[in-house]
Amino acid sequence: MAKQEDVFKKLISHAKEYGFIFPSSEIYDGLSAIYDYGQNGAELKSNIKQYWWKAMVQMNENIVGIDSAIFMHPTIWKASGHVDAFNDPLIDNKDSKKRFRADVLLEDYCAKLEEKAQKEIEKAAKRFGDAFDKNEFETTNGRVIEYREKQKTILSRMAKSLENEDLADVKALIEELEIADPDTGSKNWTDVRQFNLMFGTKLGASADSATDLYLRPETAQGIFVNFLNVQKTSRHKLPFGIAQIGKAFRNEIVARQFIFRMREFEQMEMQFFVPPGTELSFYEEWKQKRLNWHLALGLGADNYKFHDHEKLAHYANAAADIEFKFPFGFKELEGIHSRTDFDLKAHEKFSGRKLQYFDSERNENYIPYVVETSVGLDRLFLAIFSNSLKEEVLDDGSERTVLSLPPALAPVKAAILPLMKKDGLAEYGEKIFNDLKFDFNMIYEDKDSIGKRYRRQDAIGTPFCITIDHDTLTDHTVTLRDRDTMQQERVPVADLRRIIDEKTNFRNLLSKI
């Protein structure tokens, strides 16, 4: 655990030192669970958005994108169930005075059981070597089976209790398992209570006439209330999807783990509208499509797994998470849900407006069913950043910190580094910079030794460094250094655009999906 904490501290420190993420309002001592993205973080975040948007909208002729408002009519949140049911089960420790999500305490307990199971598997793999059959071991080893069955029992009981709003049993389960405050070890718990997560605000010029509003807790409802507007103006037939990237706000009582759980965050969601009765086949299809999208990033297939929900939300008939192995363990990265016709039916009821689709092939009107894919942009940023940050020991015994981001996502695609400022090298470097900046986000740097500049670019994930020396002035070639291999080669200046594009173009990611 200590090692994981050290890795996470280094990650947070690196993010701040190199302009990726800063604590918001830091000069005023900040705000809890609120962060600002720095110059490199904003670029990386923008590139992740582009990758998602291109894959979801540009590559699918039956999916379009919108940008709905953050402020929405308050009745929308009554219809969606957020006013009555958007709660977290929270529990306080009487001794430490700290507050925790009861479901997270139980999930973390189950995660430790899985860690024990994995240790048994790893020990067996070392013992048996090449003859080891992982699948057979997992299905026959008594300890692994016991750990997995205990996990299943705990999660099933928790899901049933939360679904029945039996919060007393949730507390009883925590006490039966002797779960302690992870910081102090105290097991002195209060009762479990529900807290609504929506932020309230007002719209209007005066307090007397102001309308009570909410900051949206999700972006999906902006898609649902615009379903007919988009369908009619795009003239799409079912099945078709509506995608959106936007801010959402949740008053997380227990916000933790850096940008993993924040109060102001960004979602990338797509609602796929389908004929009733076909939703579960599309649900399975989108599960695989979304996993393939993640795998194309090259972060390692072992870092992903599906988690099927034991407890379904009030609107769903099937749900699964794509979990990623963060520095603090496997956690939810993206959700895929079969939302049935709940949302459109609820908005039709509360608004009094028909939200039905006329299916010319079936010759009937109906309310479509919906399959949702929803990924947290900030969580995805953290997944990519944490997986890419590496400490390497080089052949000469020295060390370097490198952020081996997928090149298409890198904030800076290439750095122009004149060997020195004099003898016309700086001017030649600026000429290359001004030529390439139309196509790529570039950086020009002429301070410090070339070695220090290389290390700085490694640390922010720049795929290429381009060094201008005295030979460049006569033969018009430069030294091109690759971030990942650190190999250097002389290439003509005229070839730089093609070389950089070949490695950093989004096509490299999109073609792998």
UniProtKB/TrEMBL annotation:
Keywords, A to Z, come to: Aminoacyl-tRNA synthetase, ATP-binding, Cytoplasm, Ligase, Nucleotide-binding, Protein biosynthesis
In this chain, ATP is annotated as bound at 250-252, 260-265, 332-333, 376-379
What span is annotated as the signal peptide, if there is one?
Answer: none
Q: Which InterPro entries match?
A: aa-tRNA-synt_IIb, aa-tRNA-synth_II, aa-tRNA-synth_II/BPL/LPL, Anticodon-bd, Anticodon-bd_dom_sf, Gly-tRNA_synthase/POLG2, Gly_tRNA_ligase_bac, GlyRS-like_core
Could you say which EC number(s) this protein's record lists? 6.1.1.14
**MF GO annotations:** glycine-tRNA ligase activity
Instruction: Briefly state the protein's biological role.
Output: Catalyzes the attachment of glycine to tRNA(Gly).
Q: What is this protein called?
A: Glycine--tRNA ligase
Gene field:
glyQS
